[in-house]
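User: quick one, sequence for these tokens?
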């Protein structure tokens, strides 16, 4: 029987699960509402339901499940304990990996969702052939994962690479994490709209209900306000990336997520800040790439993390 791994991408809105083959291809998938507001027990019940459905799929397809990988938003320790998940508060203090192992009998590996995405892009996406890079996902918030010398860098406690909480404005906006001026407050879908509300209050109303995708469409059509919002976001991103680049001299930054799909609208602003704030040799060597795995990056990466543990996915 062919080995597969179950990849799970946990979000505040949806639970996404898939059977992932050793080559990173998706064989079967499920999507269920997270509905975390109903509490931990109800959430876990839906998650187990999705896993049971995939196990049935695996049986009908004649494949064997080697393990489960889970990407979770928030601070996930090396032992699998969820220390803090801003959008999934009922999971705080819960070890989901231990719970799933007890319920399924399978080996389970859990990690921060952006770390899972970084591993996915490393093995199957834009990070192939690169040794050291950071993946940044820009959506409602900003997530990041760091690959150094071919290995996922999790830090001493498992909490490394929280790029979204680098301070870029010491007296800036209050962040839900408790700090002020975090990068995430200036680089995200919500940040685009907040900039418009501040900078163009007289005409902001027509923009404030737009999604990042629709705002990007306006920018590509030449809307000055939308263009300015993406440009300003690129500047803040470039300021933070310049400091990171001077520190780590990475080969690339790979940008994904819903807002990341509009990289063409703010890449020039990023480059301008890099040229202004980085050593020339460092800025010149840094590639800015768009992620290749799209919405499946977290699923594929989580499965890859579990596969490495189970010995059925080759890493670097």
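Assistant:
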């Amino acid at each position: 029987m062919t080995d597969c791994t179950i990849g799970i991408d946990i979000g505040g809105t949806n639970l996404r699960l898939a059977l992932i083959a050793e080559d990173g291809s998706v064989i079967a998938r499920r999507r269920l509402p997270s509905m975390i507001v109903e509490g931990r027990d109800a959430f876990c019940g839906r998650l187990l339901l999705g896993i049971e459905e995939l196990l049935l799929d695996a049986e009908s397809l004649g494949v064997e499940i080697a393990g489960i990988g889970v990407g979770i938003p928030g601070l996930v320790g090396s032992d699998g304990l969820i220390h803090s998940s801003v959008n999934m508060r009922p999971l705080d203090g819960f070890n989901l990996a231990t719970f799933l192992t007890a319920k399924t009998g399978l080996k389970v590996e859990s990690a921060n969702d952006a770390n899972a995405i970084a591993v996915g892009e490393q093995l199957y996406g834009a990070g192939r052939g690169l040794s050291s890079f950071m993946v940044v996902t820009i959506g409602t918030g900003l997530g990041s994962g760091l690959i150094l010398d071919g290995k996922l860098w999790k830090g001493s406690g498992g909490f490394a690479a929280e790029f979204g909480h680098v301070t870029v404005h010491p007296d800036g906006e209050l962040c839900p994490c408790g700090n002020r001026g975090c990068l995430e407050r200036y680089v995200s879908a919500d940040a685009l709209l907040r900039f418009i509300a501040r900078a163009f209050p007289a005409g902001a109303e027509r923009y404030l209900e737009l999604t990042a995708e629709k705002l990007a469409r306006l920018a590509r059509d030449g809307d000055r306000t939308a263009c300015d919002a993406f440009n300003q976001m690129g500047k803040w991103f470039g300021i933070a990336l310049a400091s990171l680049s001077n520190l780590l001299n990475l080969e690339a930054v790979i940008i994904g997520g819903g807002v990341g799909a509009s990289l063409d609208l703010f890449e020039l602003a990023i480059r301008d800040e890099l040229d202004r704030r980085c050593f020339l040799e460092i800025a010149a060597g840094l590639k800015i790439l768009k992620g290749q795995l799209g919405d499946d990056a977290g699923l594929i990466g989580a499965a890859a993390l579990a596969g490495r543990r189970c010995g059925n996915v080759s890493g670097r």
